[in-house]
Specification:
Number of helices: 8
Helix content: 25-40%
Structural class: alpha/beta
Number of domains: 2
Shape: globular
CATH topology of the largest domain: Metallo-beta-lactamase, Chain A
Strand order of the largest sheet: 6-5-4-3-2-1-14-15
Strand content: 15-25%
CATH architecture of the largest domain: 4-Layer Sandwich
Largest sheet: 8 strands, mixed
CATH class of the largest domain: Alpha Beta
Distance between the termini: 56 Å
Radius of gyration: 20 Å
CATH superfamily of the largest domain: Ribonuclease Z/Hydroxyacylglutathione hydrolase-like
Length: 284
């Protein structure tokens, strides 16, 4: 009799669990119909951007420096979801890839995209080993590539435009423009002003975007006045740690953003910043 009672409890709990998973899956599916969501995760001094396309496809761009990214992903992804379709490492600095090692150990990814520049740091070597151990396809980002995220959402690679082996790591950063309908997000990694000038020259007003993620956490080495003017973002996100040792964001950048009348959102003040877009309007 006792065995039957235990079996009943087991099947009841299993049924309860499966029912809840079904309900949460239905709610998540209904919630994202026709909606693109972009979250700039609050992971301290570093970058981590989570994208969920209208059809549910997911992209993680960078992962901060440590396990903090796992906690933040848990807030923007359903607890039962252990897959991320694409992982992009904009460049091999620790504050961008340190957390990706943990992500790849805890989530299943389809492929990893990198700029092609290497580093002799331990965290870079660990990331490359993890990619190799999991036998993940590795794609070198190059200008002109397009990641079709589904239902009209796409990620256009603007930079690098050539082989970056041996380059300074920030200079080799992947720069991408996320487009959905009439809305767009310009994601710049730690790209410096010299690359901003190059992109301004070849893309001009095509850089115009609703949201700009400032290069290099709001450092004066990025986000020149001319570049910011071309992008002319309604919102600008600065991903940085509170009271960080670099003094990011620098006053010069904040002054430029104030001058172009962009709404500035800082992860160290606002926490994770999430936008939603129906292709016509962007909402916080």
């Amino acid at each position: 009799m006792k065995n039957n009672s235990n079996k009943f409890k087991f099947y009841f709990l299993l049924g309860f669990l499966l029912t809840n998973i079904f309900i949460w899956h239905t709610v998540a599916t209904e919630d994202r119909q026709g909606i693109l969501k972009v979250s700039f995760l609050d992971i301290g001094q570093g970058d981590a951007i989570f994208i969920e396309a209208p059809n549910g496809n997911q992209v993680l761009i960078d992962g901060g420096s440590n396990r903090a990214v796992l906690k933040e992903l848990g807030k923007v992804m359903p607890f039962y979801d252990r897959t991320i379709d694409a992982v992009i490492a904009t460049h091999p600095d620790k504050d961008h890839i340190g957390g990706l090692v943990e992500v790849l150990k805890n989530y299943r990814a389809d492929f990893v995209m990198e700029p092609g520049v290497s580093s002799d740091t331990g965290v870079y070597q660990e990331l490359e080993k993890t990619i190799a151990d999991k036998n993940l396809p590795r794609i070198l980002a190059r200008r002109g590539m397009l990641l079709n995220l589904g239902e009209g959402a796409r990620l256009n690679i603007l930079f690098p435009n050539r082989n970056t082996e041996g380059w300074e790591t920030n200079t080799a950063s992947i720069v991408a423009k996320l487009v959905y309908g009439n809305n767009s997000f310009l994601l710049t990694g730690d790209s410096p002003i010299v690359i901003e000038k190059y992109l301004s020259m070849i893309d001009g007003r095509n850089l115009k975007s609703d949201v700009l993620k400032t290069g290099h956490h709001g450092s004066r080495t990025s986000t020149s006045e001319s570049f910011a003017g071309l992008v002319s973002p309604q919102y600008t996100v600065i991903s940085a740690g509170k009271n960080n040792q670099y003094g990011h964001p620098h006053k010069e950048v904040l002054d430029i953003l104030d001058k172009i009348k962009s709404v500035i959102l800082k992860t160290y003040e606002n926490g994770t910043v999430t936008f939603s877009s129906d292709g016509e309007e962007i909402r916080l």
